[in-house]
Amino acid sequence: xxxxxxxxxxxxxxxxxxxxxxxxxxxxxxxxxxxxxxxxxxxxxxxxxxxxxxxxxxxxxxxxxxxxxxxxxxxxxxxxxxxxxxxxxxxxxxxxxxxxxxxxxxxxxxxxxxxxxxxxxxxxxxxxxxxxxxxx
Length: 136
Prior knowledge:
Elements: H1 2-10, H2 13-20, E1 24-27, H3 32-38, H4 42-53, E2 58-59, E3 63-65, H5 77-83, E4 88-90, E5 100-107, H6 112-123, E6 128-135
Parallel strand pairs: 1-2, 1-5, 5-6
Antiparallel strand pairs: 3-4
Helix pairs in contact: 1-4
């Protein structure tokens, strides 16, 4: 299924031109327990597939989810911002500085998850961050 979603992105010439102007694509991580239960992180698979097909950008795992918090979909809008505070940490810090980064997440609802991840990337001196999603 992830390849189908990646193809939707790759078929759009405008999006592909934009992606090619960035250095790195990363995905919003899920906690290792959730990944073990589910068997995969859909956002990661899609982002990797996009990078595999667009040679100008590489996939790098930049973030790690260190807290197995409640699922955002189970919370009210006003609870979601607090739920994602301090649940992510940076990985590969040395390669972030001055890089243009695409942060991929499959679904954008309130934006709290990508806001928190973007904040961490910016604190670690990312030059620019673009959020790319499949659905809103």
